[in-house]
Amino acid sequence: MEYPIKDNIAKRVTAMNQRVEEIRSKDLYFYNQTIEELRGGSRVLVNGREMGMYASYSYLGLVGHPKINQAAQKAIEKYGTGTHGVRTLAGSLKIHQELEETIASFKHAEAAITFTSGYVTNLTVVSTLVGRGDYVISDKLNHASIVDGCLMSGAKFLRFPHNDMTALEQRLQQVPDGFAKLVITDAVFSMDGDLINFPKVVELCRKYKAWLMIDEAHSVGVLGEKGTGIEEYFNMPNTIDIKMGTLSKTIPSVGGYVAGSKDLINYLRHASRAYIFSAALPPAQAAAAKTAFEVILEEPWRIQKLRANTTQFINGLRARGFDTMLTETAIVPVLCGSDEAAFSMTRVAQRNGVFVLPVVSPAVPPGLSRLRATVTAAHEPQEIEQAMDIIEKAGWEVGVLQK
Questions:
Q1: Which residues pair with 195 in a beta bridge?
Q2: What are phi and psi of 394, to 5 degrees?
Q3: CATH second-level architecture of 66-298?
Q4: What is d(CA 373, CA 392) in angstroms, rounded to the nearest whole number?
Q5: Helix/strand/coil (H/E/C) assignment for every residue in the chain
Q6: What gap in Å lies between CA 115 and CA 274, rounded to an integer?
Q7: Under CATH, which number does the domain 25-54+300-398 receive?
Q8: What residues act catalytically?
Q9: What are the C-alpha distances in Å from 391 to residues 29, 120, 306, 333?
Q10: Residue in 145, 141, 228, 231 with CA at minimum distance from that of residue 192
Q11: Angle at the Cα of 361 (from 158 to 38), degrees rounded to 5?
Q12: Which residue of 8, 22, 157, 183 sits 20 to 30 Å from the alpha carbon of 50, by its own alpha carbon?
């Protein structure tokens, strides 16, 4: 369409659409594909073709778990498909309270609060806790939702280079005495798969009397023998002030949460605009999330299998000559370099039955475009070997791998 005024809004819309159309014209556009069926956790049907799923956030393979499905169905039978509105005015369902109690227990916290999405959770929690006159300090590779929460808060926003603890300490030293300061970082970084230097972050926060918020979107169900997250992984209990996580990755539902002290959660329940002015989670999704936390504790073999599959996937790709950066988790970047190389790698992989997606600039720095591959507990070793062979084939065809 033609826009009535050629202002900056129109220019941005036009520029993005032109970029998308250019990628489509080269048969290199792979985003927003329709998945027709989920088959057994590790397979998907896309455009009539079955492919191995290597773009899933369901790290423990809990999507479609019978017990979780049954809990969701029972919740619909009991409560229906929706709620009466916002919990503050229309009331909380018992299943919402049970979910938050389950999260608090799982995260070894006094209390928990849930929100409608992980993105909204970071946005509202950061902007509710800090404001003008405060300082918020963030790892440079933190998720966009954290960045947006920091910007929306109005606090002085300080960033430090990824995992650079010397730089973090310098940032903490910049904060004048008597000013509130919040350090916030991912536990596992969503594009690189590496871990924050958690012990050092905790040490510095204690030294400089800063609040610590950790986003565990990609570490719950992944880190620790019981899958409870980064505190368990490092054997450092009760060291995070604000424990944030999502209900849409390892937990096969939707939403986000924060766990912490009773005082903190009570404050958020009465001050967070996203809680006060957003409708409650649908009953089925709340019941599914609650049951998923229980299943993680009941089926520890899933965590062990994920760990074995992760080791196989990372080591296998590295042995084939790929740069997987510093990943230690189920998020395995396959470095391609240019945007076009990442798109081309994706095309070859998908045509040969591996559903994997490219991540390109500006989501990652120029020259660091990649396949963002993931492995889950639903994969079998032979499936992983086959997928790595196909990715290797793509690497040679595109020129990412060279003799």
A1: 188
A2: -65, -40
A3: 3-Layer(aba) Sandwich (3.40)
A4: 13
A5: CCCCCCCHHHHHHHHHHHHHHHHHHCCCCCCCCCEEEEECCCEEEECCEEEEECCCCCCCCCCCCHHHHHHHHHHHHHHCCCCCCEHHHHCCCHHHHHHHHHHHHHCCCCEEEEECCHHHHHHHHHHHHCCCCCEEEEECCCCHHHHHHHHHHCCEEEEECCCCHHHHHHHHHHCCCCCCEEEEEECECCCCCCECCHHHHHHHHHHCCCEEEEECCCCCCCCCCCCCCHHHHCCCCCCCCEEEEECCCCCCCCCEEEEECHHHHHHHHHHCHHHHCCECCCHHHHHHHHHHHHHHHHCCHHHHHHHHHHHHHHHHHHHCCCCCCCCCCCEEEEEEECHHHHHHHHHHHHHCCEECCEECCCCCCCCCEEEEEECCCCCCHHHHHHHHHHHHHHHHHHCCCCC
A6: 7
A7: 3.90.1150.10
A8: 190, 218, 249
A9: 18, 35, 20, 12
A10: 141
A11: 105
A12: 22
**Percent of the chain surpassing pLDDT 90:** 94
Average pLDDT over residues 71-90: 94
What is the average per-residue pLDDT within 234-260?
Answer: 98
Cα separation, 190 vs 145, in Å, equals: 12
What are the structure tokens assigned to 330, written together? 């189920």
Q: Token match 């109690």: residue?
A: 101
pLDDT > 70? residue 367: yes
Where do the structural domains in the chain lie, given as residue ranges? Answer: 25-54+300-398, 66-298
**Each residue of 274-287: pLDDT tens digit?**
999 999 999 999 99
Angle 301-319/381-398 helices, nearest 10 degrees?
Answer: 30
- pTM beyond 0.90, yes or no: yes
The total number of residues shown for the chain amounts to 403
Q: Identify the residue whose tokens are 């039978």.
A: 77
Instruction: Record the tokens describing residue 394, joined without a space.
Output: 């793509």
Q: How many CB atoms lie within 10 A of CB 396?
A: 14
pLDDT at residue 53 tops 90:
yes
